[in-house]
Amino acid sequence: MTTAFRFRKMNGLGNDFLVLDARAGVPRLRPDEIAALASRATGIGFDQMITIEASPAGADAFMRIDNADGGEVDACGNATRCIGRLLIGETGREAVTIETRAGLLRAYETGEGERVTVDMGVPRLAWDEIPLAEPFADTRAIELQIGPIDAPILHSPAVVNMGNPHAIFWVDDVEAYDLARIGPMLEHHPIFPERANISLAHVTSADSLTLKVWERGVGLTRACGTGACAAAVAAARTRRTGRRVAVTLPGGVLAIDWRASDDHVLMTGDVETEFAGTIDRATLTWTRDGAVRGAAE
Ligand SMILES: N[C@@H](CCC[C@H](N)C(=O)O)C(=O)O
C-alpha cells in the first residue's frame, strides 16, 4: 500500500506553508509528523501546515491550520491569502469564501499579479475574547508584570484577537530587542491562557508601521498576517495612525485597511507558490518535483 501523497509549498511574504489537499485524499497528519516535516534542518521547513478540506458550512473550502510545533490554531492571515489564490484559480471566480475555525473569511482577486485581499472580519477586543487570564477594562494598553527580561524595557502592550491572540509592544526600534530570546517568555506569560503571538511595532508615520513578530507555536517569522492586522487595529485604536496603514515586515509589506463602515479588517499582499512534490508518510521523506530531497539525505 502506498503511503505517498502530494503537497504544495507556498508563502505570503516569506511566511511559508506546507499545503495539503484532503479533498484529494491526503490523510490527517499527527502533531509529531507535522513538527518533523516543519523542521528547517531535516524536513521541508515551514511555519504552518494548511490542510484544505470540504467545508461543512458550504464555503468553497475549509482551511485547517497547524503551527510548526504541530498544534492546531484558528487563524492565519497569510495562509488565507494563499488558499484564496488557489481557490480563485480553481473556481475561476473573483472572490471565494474560506471556512476556518475562526469563522468564514472572504478572499478577493485584486487584478494585480498574485496579490490577494482577505477580509479578516471584525477584531475582538474585550479581555475575555483575547483571552486574558484576568479582567482589563481597556485592552489598548494592559499593565503586564514582565520582570527584567530585557533593556530597554517593554511594557503596556495592546492586545487584539484576530481569530488568534496578539500582544503588541510599541517600540522605537524593532531591532533593539532580542525577540528570539524574549518572545518565548512573553508567548507563555501567565496573562495569556492560550499563549499569544508577540509583536514589536514601530510607528513610522500616520499610515505606516514596522513590525517584527514572534509567532506562537513557531518562533520568528518573515511575516504574520494576523499580526499585521492586530498591530494596525491597535495603532488606530490608540490614535498612533489612521485606519489604513502599510505594515513593513522582514518579508515585505502588507496593506491593512480597518474599514470604518463595518470595522472589518482587509489585508492585501502578495502570495507565491514555491514548488510541489510528494511526501512519503512511512519514512517522512519527500521529493520535490524535478529534484530529489528528503530527511534521509
Ligand atoms: N502566520 C500567521 C499566524 C499563524 C498562527 C499563529 N502562529 C498562532 O498560533 O495564532 C498569519 O499570517 O496570521
From TrEMBL:
Pathway per the UniProt entry: Amino-acid biosynthesis; L-lysine biosynthesis via DAP pathway; DL-2,6-diaminopimelate from LL-2,6-diaminopimelate: step 1/1
GO function term, MF aspect, one: diaminopimelate epimerase activity
Gene Ontology BP term (one): lysine biosynthetic process via diaminopimelate
EC number: 5.1.1.7
Site (Could be important to modulate the pK values of the two catalytic cysteine residues): 166, 215
Gene3D superfamilies: Diaminopimelate Epimerase, Chain A, domain 1 (3.10.310.10)
Primary enzyme class: isomerase
Catalyzed reactions: (2S,6S)-2,6-diaminopimelate = meso-2,6-diaminopimelate
A GO CC term assigned to this protein in UniProt: cytosol
Keyword annotations from UniProtKB, A to Z: Amino-acid biosynthesis, Cytoplasm, Isomerase, Lysine biosynthesis
Cellular localization per UniProt: Cytoplasm
Domain of life assignment: Bacteria
UniProt xrefs under PROSITE patterns: DAP_EPIMERASE
Signal peptide: none
A Pfam entry, by short name: DAP_epimerase
InterPro entries according to UniProt: DAP_epimerase_AS (IPR018510), DAP_epimerase_DapF (IPR001653)
HAMAP family recorded: DAP_epimerase
Quaternary assembly: Homodimer.
Biological role: Catalyzes the stereoinversion of LL-2,6-diaminopimelate (L,L-DAP) to meso-diaminopimelate (meso-DAP), a precursor of L-lysine and an essential component of the bacterial peptidoglycan.
Protein name as catalogued: Diaminopimelate epimerase
Originating species: Siculibacillus lacustris
Lineage of the species this protein comes from: Bacteria, Pseudomonadati, Pseudomonadota, Alphaproteobacteria, Hyphomicrobiales
